[in-house]
């Protein structure tokens, strides 16, 4: 019994010890929770409430462009910039910041519109704006017959010009800054000012960033062109900071991780190679609370410059050809009958690789202010404009005749003019006697080509009788053959907006005769260069290209990065002709330029680089910028062209010259031959030294 009592008395003691220990542990836990709640509670709350956002930070330079000898064609120039990043600020907060910023910098106001001023007046004068709404209009609003938008529109309309004139210059600067703020997107920096930002402005803003929420300073980039206007129309442009993404391609770019205010290539090379040239902006991770305030920022990507492009263009050669075209255009304008002549084009191409060595176009444009003619770059026109080119296509005509069996090497025709019933006689520039295929090329016989076309069409010709074809596919046959050389089809050049040319729609037999002498369909200078290259290299239609290499951006601006991709020569097709047929055409082309009696011999005799080629003159209708001065019937004009390659035995360069609307009337000149001789002389002089 005593033992039982003793045992029972120990139980409460042990229980008390256990309760005491539990009490101590709970006390420690409560103290710890209290400590965490008091000391770290705010941080834990922010961690619990924060949201994660990915933003693009400061711009990085686009890729540079180099010529084939690694000279910089397009570069980047750094410039100071002031940005604003909207972190969810209210209108009042942004206005307050804009007012502070306006006291520190000068901001241009030339882009502030009257509508901007009206919106700004309402923002600055809300009470006065409310007084512009009548009692009756408020009753209509209460009856839901007018909306908030209706009332706001009425306020805008009722602001007087006198009230708008009360804005001071500083008010307008605040408005211009505020307008940039409101154009921004959340967490995406918006350029507020990047032109003529002084070091003093940069310094004072940096000192006052604590009172300018969202404002920052950074480095922006502009494109620079060391060769000035040379090749400018082909290099293209980049959108400005205020433009952002082009509206017509907005969804395309947004789907590729662009932001709405990003600058992108908007034309030609800059547009075509946007994905290569664009840099990748620095990315940062923003942590915000539930109200949208940024509570932490972490960098996740430092950004990367765009890749560089090495072009096939030789800029020294390009500049020299540009100079030749300018001089010859001015010389043309001093001759009679050249009122409508205003442009000329030259393309130089490696016939084996498709490398474009030079693509020059020059255009005379009248300055609206001074009334004087000025030269503009129109290299773009070498592949975006097309013209009737005349006899330069006759090499393709002869080969089409061989292919179809209409003629064979050595076939002879008499050069007497062809007369189809109820049409004017069609003839060569003079009677040339009996001609074979080679001599027909040398002397540029139209009649020889007419007879070839008649045979392709399986027609029967009699003087002053109707001409009909049994081969209803004659036009398709000739055009398909021409297209295999690049005439009347896209050359495949790595630039946008290439034009294929106009194809005449009439199927009357007489028009086929015009087609085979280059006076029906139209072609570009680039197509002519591809065509003559195909003959020069033995029958391979090479794709012309202006980009030679893609390189990684170099850390040292004075050096080049490693080659990421090299553009290899691309054969688009081979022409279906025998070697001996092609050789016959090459002989004819050689005789054109190297043998007395050839249509280009007078201008190319003595050329040590042994050129071959074909001249062209086409009677065409003027459709240039002055066409509306002539009503429905613009005057006939003469287009001049020339295709050539050299040396004739082992070609290393192919050339096309095109001079649209060169003259009117019979006062002819040979600008195509003058330009062609000077260009080829220049090419070989630069390569081999003085001739």
- The coarse silhouette is elongated
Helix tally equals: 24
Corresponding CATH architecture of the domain at 316-539 and 575-634 and 644-688: 3-Layer(aba) Sandwich
- Structural class, by secondary structure, is alpha+beta
Keywords: Cell membrane, Cell shape, Cell wall biogenesis/degradation, Membrane, Peptidoglycan synthesis, Transmembrane, Transmembrane helix
Subcellular location: Cell membrane; Membrane
Pfam families: PBP_dimer, Transpeptidase
Membrane topology: Single-pass membrane protein
Q: Which key terms come to mind for this protein?
A:
691 residues; Arc Repressor Mutant, subunit A; 7-stranded mixed beta sheet; 6-stranded antiparallel beta sheet; transmembrane helix; PCN-bd_Tpept; peptidoglycan synthesis; serine-type D-Ala-D-Ala carboxypeptidase; transmembrane
Topology readout:
Blueprint lengths: L1 H48 L1 E6 L8 E2 L5 E13 L6 H12 L11 H11 L1 H5 L4 H8 L5 H11 L2 H5 L3 H14 L7 E4 L5 H9 L7 E10 L7 H4 L14 H5 L13 H5 L1 H4 L5 E6 L5 E8 L6 E4 L3 H19 L9 E7 L6 E11 L6 E5 L3 H4 L9 H11 L8 E2 L19 E2 L1 H7 L2 H11 L17 H10 L25 H7 L9 H12 L3 E3 L4 E5 L11 E4 L4 E4 L4 H16 L6 H4 L7 E10 L14 E11 L6 E11 L7 H18 L3
Parallel strand pairs: 2-8
Antiparallel strand pairs: 1-6, 2-3, 3-4, 3-5, 6-7, 8-15, 9-10, 9-20, 10-11, 12-13, 14-17, 15-16, 18-19, 19-20
